[in-house]
Structures are given as structure tokens and as C-alpha cells.
Amino acid sequence: MSTTKPIIRRILAASLSAVIGFGVSGIGQAQLTPKASAATALETKVTLGVNLRVGPSSSTGVIRMISTGEMVHVVGQANSYWLHVFDKYGNSGYISADDKYTNYGGPSVSAPSSSRGAQVVNIAKSYQGRVHYSFGVRNTSKLIFDCSSFTEFVFAQVGVDLKWGTSAQKNAGSYVGKGSLRAGDLVFFDTKGSNNGVINHVGIYMGNGQMIHNTPSKNGIAINSISSGYWSQHYVTARRIL
């Protein structure tokens, strides 16, 4: 019996395995090192090497070390201790707000509510492609949240302490009508069957009739209209936190 065909089969199998293995490796790498959009201007200088972290805490993962002399774009001051920045590669993350690390002299978390609302929206947007959805989970180190633990996580970065859960968040702040929404307001929905007003989902209003939210339908961050379509039909109420 000829040995040519078995040899050819082994060569083809090895080649196919290499291709499949490469594809899986590439996908895995893309998921582990997501990038936010690069900042349009890098206006702040790093004056001492500092870790760029996933979240505003020294217990969160390190994305990379930003070297002395590098420039970053500061989105805003998350709290007294952390700055939310984009680096030169377009990575979104957090660095220490201690003035020994940068020459940043911008506004603090005491900025006007409208500015803080825009900051909340920008922070939420920076997690597109990075956050995954899992009901009943709040894992800040792996960026796995449900809808309300994500809003809690985002608002904490501007110094606002929200409780986890739509049952608590629907009573936070003050009521605001749908026609008076502004960026940073929390918007609430009833997604089970017909809309009878039982709240089970929350998002952050962005302006122009859109919200940003962590949703199981995308397994992550999505931007949707609340002026028309599904979310308009399931809208219940809104609260102003800032």
C-alpha cells in the first residue's frame, strides 16, 4: 500500500491546525488588549513614570507603564486620587492624580453638573469593547458587570456613590422628565414582556435621544436610541444624579 496519501493527510492536517491555532490566538489577543479611540490632543506631560490601570484603584490591572516625558490626554479627574486618561496608543485607563506624576492642572470633580455629565458619558464610552455582561456580577478587575453594577462603576469614577441594583438606583437623585434629560442622567426600562413599569434595566443618557448601557444582547456596552424603537417602547423613568 502506498504511503504517499497518509503523509499528505498529515501535512494538510498540520497546516490546518496551524491556521486555526493562529486564528484563535489572534482573536484572544484582540479581546485581551482592546483599545479606545486615540485622543485628538495629548496635552498633559507625564513627569514621573506611572502605571496606566484598568480602573481608578491600585488593585486593578496594569495596562502599561507610561514613561517619563510621554504625553497623555486627560478626560477628567475621576476623584481626588485618579485621572482618567488616553495614552499615545489610544489606551483608555487611569493614572495617579498625585502632582508628582504629571503637570495636569485641569478641572477637578467639582466641575459643573453639565461638565460632569459629559465626563460620565466619556468614561462609559471608553469601556466599549472592553466590558462584558453577566447578570448579578460586579467584577471591576475583569470588567464584568450587569447593567447597574456598570453604572455604579462609572459614577464612582466621578466621586458619586451609587448603590448596586436598579431597585436602589431608581430612587437615587431626583426625578427628571424624559423631555428634560441631559447627559449623565440615569434612564430606566422595563424589558420583560409588555411595559408595565417594573424596572429591570438602567442606562446612562448621552444626549440627542441616545443612551449608553451594558446589555446582555451585546454582551457589553451598546449605544441605543430611546426616542424610537425598542428602548423607547420600554422606557419607564429617569433620575438626575449629578
UniProtKB/TrEMBL annotation:
Keywords: Hydrolase, Protease, Thiol protease. Residues 114-242 form the NlpC/P60 domain. Coiled coil: none annotated. It comes from the Bacteria. Residues 38-104 form the SH3b domain. InterPro entries: NLP_P60_dom, Papain-like_cys_pep_sf, Peptidase_C40, SH3-like_bac-type. It holds the Pfam family SH3_3. Belongs to the peptidase C40 family. This is C40 family peptidase. It comes from Cohnella yongneupensis.
